[in-house]
Design a protein that fits this description.
It is a single chain. This protein has 193 residues and is α+β, with helices and mostly antiparallel strands. A five-stranded mixed sheet has the order 1-5-4-3-2. A hairpin with a 5-residue loop joins strand 4 and strand 5.
């Protein structure tokens, strides 16, 4: 009988003492929630692209572009003709790694308070089975640092997209066109690379 009572007391102490059934305070996540979704459509890919720029998230931004290892085709950027003449970086082929490097350099100059604003207008998506062409006019407003004024990059972009072997849409070709007196996105890439 004494063994049963001592066993019962030990069990009660263990259950009560270790806090097994106590409610814990929640902990904040180590990393913020990833807003990129699997791009199962060309529209979702465009949404991911815009969101990654607005959120200034380099990993999500780079994930929008074709990775030759994952998809079997590589990403290529064609700059505006004006920027191609000004920036030597465009004399070679601009691929996914160059895109990642430019965007990380660009973000390094910004602070949390200096958010980029992207606006797309006159957008059209032409679908061709497992590929699509997205055409739009863009305006990318970069907030000024203490001694600058607001910088606006604008022009027209043409994004060619394909479905990769994992059935995820990716951008495999970006053509940029200067259409206003403002510098184009190509100029931003050339400056920040």
């Amino acid at each position: 009988m004494l063994k049963k009572v001592s066993l019962f007391v030990i069990i009660i102490l263990l259950v009560k003492g270790c806090g097994l059934f106590d409610v814990r305070d929640s902990e904040p996540p180590v990393n913020p929630r990833d807003t990129n979704q699997f791009a199962t459509s060309s529209e979702m890919l465009i949404k991911n692209f815009i969101t990654s720029v607005r959120e200034m998230n380099a990993d999500n931004y780079t994930a929008n572009f074709a990775d030759s290892v994952q998809s079997g085709f590589k990403y290529i950027f064609t700059p505006s003709s004006n920027a191609a003449l000004i920036y030597p970086v465009f004399s070679g082929e601009w691929g996914r790694e160059e895109e990642n490097r430019y965007f990380r350099n660009f973000l390094a100059e910004l602070s949390e308070e200096r958010k980029v604003t992207i606006t797309l207008t006159d957008s059209v998506i032409n679908r061709y089975g497992d590929s699509a062409l997205f055409i739009c006019k863009y305006s990318l407003a970069v907030p000024p640092s203490s001694n600058q004024q607001l910088l606006t990059y604008s022009g027209e972009m043409r994004l060619r997209m394909k479905v990769n072997k994992n059935l995820i849409w990716e951008i495999f070709h970006w053509e940029d066109y200067k259409t206003t007196i403002n510098p184009s996105w190509s100029d931003l890439k050339g400056e920040k690379y």
